[in-house]
Amino acid sequence: MKVLVTGARGRVGRAATQALLDAGHEVHATDLLRPNFDRKPEGSAKYTMADLTDAGEAFAVVRGMDAVVHVAAIPEPTGNPPHVVFRTNLISTFNVLEAAVRFNVPRFVNISSETVPGFFFPERPFLPQYAPVDEAHPAHPQDPYALSKHFGEQLMNAAVERSDIRVISIRPSWVQNEETYEMNLGPQVRDASVLSPNLWSYIDVYDLADAIVLATDSDLPGHEIFYIASPDNVGGRDFAEILHQYYGDQIELRQLDRPDASGISSAKAVRMLGWNPKRSWRDYLDADGRLKQS
């Protein structure tokens, strides 16, 4: 297929682009970075610079595609003014999706966020109702990033109601790669009291890219939402034990797939997409949370 990847120069976009190329797709990449005009390696993605908050530019890059993987977004709410986060994420999603509907693109993969339930950046903090968190957990977003991702999923619902497009929204956990494991997850490996709203969850960028390829190739009808998180928690600890130790009885503990389970369940993706995560923080870090020596 001819697949457009938006946000292709970011952490997730780069991995998704390569995974789609490896799967045999013709990949067209777009981002805000300027192109270069050197000779391109054989088999690389075709690149076009585009600002997707501009409807004309969004329509230009979507035209002629068989699938769209929409990764482009401001990835969290603290580094930009709130109105910029909300406007950029929601309008770019609307424009790219609208173009896909008008050009009869049959498959759309929307990269949403684990933050949609709302307990990641709230002004009035609250905890998950239960863990592991799954797709059925109520959504009460407060911040502009979670709101933009929540409304983006509503746009997907509307698209499948008014057209024949098939949509999958992926909610990745905290995405890590070789450059970030030690900095981001090392402190939690060493000390479980270093808390995060996603309950010691994470996802390897290459496992996420595998899920994106499966979603792109999928024929699932309508709009399906999938959490994508590694099956184990950061540190590999007994999840029931640390949940009770640090949260008492405030979060209901539900059935676990394994003792060292993640705080986010990807059981639906395993069941319906056939997703099979292969990587763990243990591949990169030792028991002290330090980068393994090659």
Task: Please give a structural write-up.
The chain is an alpha/beta fold and 294 residues long. The chain has one domain (2-175, 204-229, 264-273): Rossmann fold, CATH 3.40.50.720. The protein contains 8 helices and 11 strands. It has helices at residues 11-22, 55-62, 82-102, 144-162, 181-190, 205-217, 239-247, 267-273; strands at residues 2-6, 26-31, 46-49, 67-70, 107-111, 130-131, 166-172, 175-176, 203-204, 223-228, 252-253. The strands form 3 sheets. A 7-stranded parallel sheet has the order 3-2-1-4-5-7-10, with helices on both faces. Strands 6-11 form a two-stranded parallel sheet. Strand 4, helix 3 (82-102) and strand 5 form a beta-alpha-beta unit. The longest helix is centred in the N-terminal third of the chain and has 21 residues, at 82-102. The two termini are 37 Å apart. The model has no long low-confidence stretch (mean pLDDT 97). It holds the Pfam family Epimerase. InterPro entries: Epimerase_deHydtase (IPR001509), Lipid_A_modif_metabolic_enz (IPR050177), NAD(P)-bd_dom_sf (IPR036291). This is NAD-dependent epimerase/dehydratase family protein.
